[in-house]
Amino acid sequence: MAKNTQFVTHIANRETDFSQWYTDVIMHADMVDYSNVRGCMVIKPYGYAIWENIQKYLDERFKETGHENAYFPIFIPESLLQKEVDHVEGFAPEVAWVTHAGSEELTERLCVRPTSETIICSMYAKWLKSYRDLPYLYNQWANVVRWEKTTRPFLRTSEFLWQEGHTLHETHEEAMEETLKMLGVYADLAEKVMAIPVIKGQKSENERFAGAEATYTMEALMHDGKALQMGTSHDLGQHFSKVYDIEYSDRNGELQNPYQTSWGVSTRLIGGLIMVHGDERGLKLPPRIAPVQAVIVPIAANKEGVLDKAIELYNSLKAQGIKVKLDDRDTVSPGFKFNEWELKGVPVRIEIGPKDIEKGSVVYARRDDFSKGEIKMDETTKRIPELLDEIQDNMFNQALEHREAHTVDATDFETFTGHIESGSGFVRAMWCGCGECEEEIKEKTGATTRCAPFEQKQLSDVCVHCGKPAKKMMYFAKAY
Amino acid sequence: MAKNTQFVTHIANRETDFSQWYTDVIMHADMVDYSNVRGCMVIKPYGYAIWENIQKYLDERFKETGHENAYFPIFIPESLLQKEVDHVEGFAPEVAWVTHAGSEELTERLCVRPTSETIICSMYAKWLKSYRDLPYLYNQWANVVRWEKTTRPFLRTSEFLWQEGHTLHETHEEAMEETLKMLGVYADLAEKVMAIPVIKGQKSENERFAGAEATYTMEALMHDGKALQMGTSHDLGQHFSKVYDIEYSDRNGELQNPYQTSWGVSTRLIGGLIMVHGDERGLKLPPRIAPVQAVIVPIAANKEGVLDKAIELYNSLKAQGIKVKLDDRDTVSPGFKFNEWELKGVPVRIEIGPKDIEKGSVVYARRDDFSKGEIKMDETTKRIPELLDEIQDNMFNQALEHREAHTVDATDFETFTGHIESGSGFVRAMWCGCGECEEEIKEKTGATTRCAPFEQKQLSDVCVHCGKPAKKMMYFAKAY
Questions:
Q1: Contact at 8 Å (CB) between B413 and B429?
Q2: Phi and psi dihedrals of A456, rounded to 5?
Q3: pLDDT digits (tens, 9 = 90+) for A172-208
Q4: Which of A314, A363, B87, B401 has the maximum number of C-beta atoms within 10 A of its C-beta?
Q5: B371 in contact with chain A, both atoms CB, cutoff 8 A
């Protein structure tokens, strides 16, 4: 049979049509597909494997920091959802309602969880007795549903997968410590595993979680200059614990409401991964999150010894814990394979053919900078892991450079507007702290406050928009 | 502060009120709780940790056998569910229907998945092109909803957690091989990890999965003599692939429908674990599934050196990969701790006090047979893992003995009825293979066919009930 040598991808131009480029990459890299259900996606194995890597990293970190997993029902009775006023206002417009079971109408409608504070609070109220029981450090891996008008795979879908941590504490200080600790875990995931630099900071009142006292976030800049909220951690204060009657006897025997946190990241992170690192050839994955870290492509595999050497290399890399794949398909050409694995973003390709075997070496090609080189066969187990580390670091640095190059400080509204309208990234600017001013900025420019970064600078004394005294420096950007 | 020495459990008598005993054990061992939503349970950390151990074992085995994980939407449009007639008849009475999103009524009702054959088939129909793409070996970890009239935590709940494998194959032989291979993986989980002996066999036509060509099952006997279906694997033939238009070009370029399998186990397994092994003191967990395999309880922990030695032992066992817990609470007495960890089913308790330290040894107490003994301190890292293996084996053997002692062969209907009515286990008997006869047996005795075991014996030539020529030997029992 003739080999298939033509690899046709049809990926739109990343610079001129980022939105179509995104869709093309996720579809051609076989990460996701649209389903028959409006706004719901199917996460295909290659996409899901990335989610599994995210889960593995986070789950270990959660457990190291003393958390345990639990599971709460997907359904929330309408009356329970409605107890916390801000919360229900925030979520009611986008919840899916179950009204019937079999052929019977339910006496009370059930909402499919958009998040689980309410159902979890109702259980915590039942369980918590004494200060000795605190802290509660629980996490849940789950699917949630938020009915969206316009959807995009990974970034905004009616159903998505996430984890949600829900903790209770004796003091506000402890709750704050927890909130920031988990934001730190998220930032480690983003920066150390996904090679995505993030800005950590606090959300404005308008942008915070419905029912929270304060929301902390990590924000990243995508290649097209838009921001993506990558994960949030909420200081819920006693808002929910008061409304849902969560009480305990304190050290003096008096009834108190505990302080509460919640925090979550979702499959949305995968969207960020694609939009930060992807390029004109498709997906580009940092080694620490890649389902396949290195792919071995035998050249002239029918020549004696080639496949044997490839298998030998495969086994030695696998034994080292490297996620390696041997592409021994005989129905497609090496060139076809090169293109396909580039599209799928595999960090390192290793070519091995008769000439390489003669020389006692292999050829490698890096996905991050397309550089190629040779490695002596007996140095592969040393060099390949080094290469993966180099690629990981380089990808983080590239993303950081891109962000720095697309971040400006604005002390006047013209500079602010100019930068936002050119669609080229973050604006750092002073802000008065007023929600109406924030709304006006959004209406005029399309930019929202992303966060008040923990690292503050006094760029000027007045708000970039209204000129009133400035409260803090904010990051602004158009956002997904 | 006075230590709490009183440990009050109120566990009902296992022999006289098994149902209440079950509820008491799961509640007091802190595995699960009832939620505000009818029929939905909350899986608490101690119960969820068992599920995580099940997941870990199975996920590794699935991947070893070439499967990949994916994720499909939780919602299934009504029209899609209704395509396969047997399937919709089987599931429609118990599905939850989403009719509204936000304040809008949906144009088509969405069912919350009771199982995912239909939605997955609709995607497979879109994806599959050529015989080269086969086999499809995908699995999904997910929650499913089946609205139940009467519920019991873990055993029968309106929402439960499970995995569902969905595969496509070129030939019926390959599909059959897959079906039985995965049943074998499940049986390994049951027998080697959960210490539960199972009977593997084929379900009768009446009892098989709605839409399947054949359903294979593993059945276990609970302590009260009732059977529990622990996991099923279905040969779906071409039923779904024809109805959902899944087609591919075969090796001759002709369109064919692939052969399909599906297989699943759920959180129900945890119910089985409790009902097979639990005793009058509560939960009893086999070491390979236990969230905590060994608990160290310091005696007179305030005496110099005791806690240090306990911590030393904890660290050395932990370094060995043993799931060990050091119970250093100073608010409760050692006796309280003994009772609590017995209730929670921890396989080995290790006591360490001043006298033990003097002797250079520790005291161990086995949960499975309550035997106690001493281990020299410098032999703990050798002896504790051995003990865990011994406990694992002993628990399997005890469960096997119990099953064998509660299984009878019946060649006449009086013996059959007598054994079933005494509520004491499995009956092996010959059956004519007729569904009406099976229904009559069920009406008269409450027993259902559990399976035609792979290991057949010709007990007699005629059906134990109707006297017509016998087709095969079946296991019968009352079941959960």
A1: no
A2: -90, 150
A3: 999 999 999 999 999 999 999 999 999 999 999 999 9
A4: B87
A5: no
